Amino acid sequence: MRRIALTLLLILSFESVAAGTASLSISCGALGVELSLCQQGVDAWSSKTGIDVNIVATPNSATERFALYQQILASRSADIDIFQIDVVWPGTLAPHLVDLSQYIPEDITAQHFSTLITNNTVDGALVAMPWFTVAGVLYYRKDLLHKYGESPPQTWQQLTDTAARIQEAERLAGNLRMYGFVFQAKGYEGLTCDALEWVDSFGGGTLVSSDGEVTINNPKAVQALEMASRWIGNIAPQGVLNYDEEQSRGVFQSGNAVFMRNWPYAWALGNAEDSPVRGKIGVIALPRGGEHGHHSGVLGGWQLAVSKYSKHPRQAADLVRYLTSYPEQKRRALIGSYNPTISVLYQDAEVLAAAPFFGTLYASFQNAVARPSRITGDKYARVSAEFYYAVHGVLGGKTTAAKALAQLQRKLERLSRGGQW
Ligand code: GLC
User: Which of 52, 202, 291, 409 gives the lowest tally of CB atoms within 10 Å of its CB?
Assistant: First the structure.
């Protein structure tokens, strides 16, 4: 049903392009204020250049968006000129994307985090420009922690204990809908991010090592998933198994959760004028796993790429250059707490005042853990899907962590052909 609706949406957008009401078309995400920020940026460029731009909204789920892009690009359609692509997609989508280095000078690309430029460079071609970068963070209710004399948790065990205690006390006080912790546990790319953070924070690796070895079947990863499975139906609602970013934010922002794992965009929305939790939120690094674990946070974020099938690559690249520029990234950081990819913006006083954790968590953003997309190349989507299916089964109580990870290890090894990918 959803797929049909999306197809219809695209057909409608395509028609307006075909009818000549737009000469460029860009796909933008629509999470929170994303779409309106995109629209404003595009409008500013259009009024400068006189070129009309059509915006195509895409599904919130990264997994669904990827499937849609693959369909469009496989058909070599010229209908979308610019694609907003996830940090884990350049390897797979590269054959369909223009080398932007022919349009965007090196002194501009050099302003961006070099790790992202490296990530977006495939076989020597710069296939996308970084737009915003993120890492998973922990949101907490400052007022509730204060009320119960608790401190922000440093380990998952502390988070579990604090969440349970406050959840119970708040329910006794009459808020029956209060939960301790919400996150993303629906079967999709978001769960891959959350689960990789749990596993990595226990020292259980990143699923596939940087040299291609499948590493997921290890005792620390088992321990991490066992911990998470105990949350379901206890400190986390059973329904979390169907939550994506926006559903977790809905619960937290309406005041019904003590803790939330999410991306930085939830900060600006949680502090918006109409937000019930405005001014009551703190943001810290995600907890460490066990005594020997460390703080983790998966690297996320989005890039802008120009399709090889675009009829106007030069103009499209110019729009990409504008949208990823310093003033645009600053505007998006101030209004939407979208982390810039231009390093000097992290020294900008206005940016730091709008989202103070950009400064306090700078190291977490710098050291964010990459999903194994570079090493697994165009098999990444499959690897990620196998991982989130396995984790979802464990969280839903259908299987044990030990069994699921042993099976996942075998599946991924078959897929990797002895680490060659
Ligand atoms: C966010 C991240 C993206 C990730 C997705 C998963 O949009 O920026 O990298 O794949 O969440 O849901």
Answer: 291
Distances (CA, A) of 208 to 200, 301, 374, 415: 11, 20, 10, 12
Q: Give the per-residue pLDDT at 18.
A: 39
Ligand 1 contacts CB of residue 86 (under 6 A): yes
Name the residue type at position 28: C
pTM given for the model: 0.94
State residue 190's pLDDT score. 98
- Which ligand 1 atom minimizes the distance to the CA of 184? 12
Residue 68 Cα to chain centre, angstroms: 17
Answer yes or no: is the C-beta of 42 below 6 A from any ligand 1 atom.
no
Residue-level pLDDT at 15: 38
Pairing of strands 53-57, 24-28: parallel
- Name the burial class of residue 49, with classes exposed (0-12), middle (13-18) and buried (19+) by CB atoms within 10 angstroms of its CB: middle
Structure-token pair, residue 261: 């794992």
Which phi and psi (to 5°) does residue 292 adopt? -95, 5
Residue 298 CA, closest ligand 1 atom number: 9
How far does the centroid of ligand 1 lie from the alpha carbon of residue 221, in Å? 22
- For a ligand 1 pocket test, name from 61, 86, 89, 304 the mutation site with the most ligand atoms within 8 angstroms of its C-beta: 86
Cβ of 246 below 6 Å from ligand 1 = no
Distance between CA 98 and CA 8 in Å, rounded?
Answer: 27
User: Own/partner pairs for 241-244, CB < 8 Å, 24+ apart?
Assistant: 241/185, 241/186, 241/392, 241/395, 241/396, 242/185, 242/186, 243/182, 243/183, 243/184, 243/185, 243/186, 244/60, 244/61, 244/184, 244/186, 244/188, 244/190
Question: In terms of Cα–Cα distance, which of 86, 90, 77, 82 is closest to 54?
Answer: 82
Two tokens at 18?
């075909």
Q: Ligand 1: does its nearest atom lie under 6 Å from the Cβ of 193?
A: yes
pLDDT, tens only, 402-412 = 999 999 999 99
Residues in the chain: 421
What the chain holds in terms of domains, given with CATH numbers, is 2-134+299-366 (3.40.190.10)
Q: Please tell me the residue having the least CA distance from ligand 1 atom 3.
A: 300
Would you place residue 17 in the very low, low, confident or very high pLDDT band (cuts 50, 70, 90)?
A: very low
